[in-house]
User: Fold this.
Amino acid sequence: MTKSLVDLHDVELAALAAAGGRREFGELVRRHGSAVRALLRRMGAQGAEADDVAQDAFLRAFEKCAEFRGEGTFAAWVKRIAARLYLKRKSKDARYVAEIGTEEIAPAVDTPGLVDLDEALKSLNETERLCVSLCHGAGLSHPEIAAAMNLPLGTVKSHVKRGLDKLRARLQPETGKTGPAQYGRSTHVG
Amino acid sequence: MSADEFDPYVERLFARTPHMADATLFAADLEAKLASGSRVRTLALTVAGLVGGAFAVRETLHLNVNLTAGDAPVAGQALGRGLGQVGASAQGAAQSALDQLGLANLSLGSMGGMQLFWLAAGAMIALAAAGVMKLSQEG
Assistant:
């Protein structure tokens, strides 16, 4: 008796997708599409742009599916592809270079304990946000981020540390109220 | 909360996937793109295979099958003449098709036998690859 798609593990689905199985790959997209799109939004991509990059990332993942051997999770693998694609797209934009290290967003005043990650990330400047998202969201190491962003390693570490300091100041885990946001149904506070 | 505690905490927050109302639509769009890309690839390979196959057929018909020698049986002579006529008409048809495609300068007769052989061989491989791909996608 054959298992239905929903019963198959990601590694099994990826192996079938590597053999050209579009339905199997579609199941992987259904499982992990939102996670990849959320990461791109957390990196600073706007809605439509995030979806475009996510689609490109999944299309590339389909082409390279045979390279996925299941060492990590499938979601993490696609997230890395998506993060690199987004960085590549941004590096083509001349504004990105000009904005590095220059943009500071004034901290907003929030009710303690009612801030979620997506809101907290808005208190970071663009580069801090990218570095923190790449490190803790896409799972890239500091040297990998430095290479991908063409920044010195020390600068990347500084951005990650400053970004985490800002996040720590905004997030109040003790209350246990931090939870996932729902895109399209704004949960803005403050 | 110390940095050692906060780092994994942030990672857990990143790992949480927010609900997206259009998640199904996103997946459907992507599947449609995959299907469309596959169709284009299959079509391109099929066209390449057909072109190569046409060259292969033309080359086969152009072979100097010498069945008209005096010691050949009568049926062999007839077959030889038939093959010769089919070969000539196929070459004319292929050349006129090339003319219509704006490739009038590409004279089939001017191509060497080895060139045509490799062209045909490449095309047959492409055709076989297209077939295998199609079968694997349908399987």
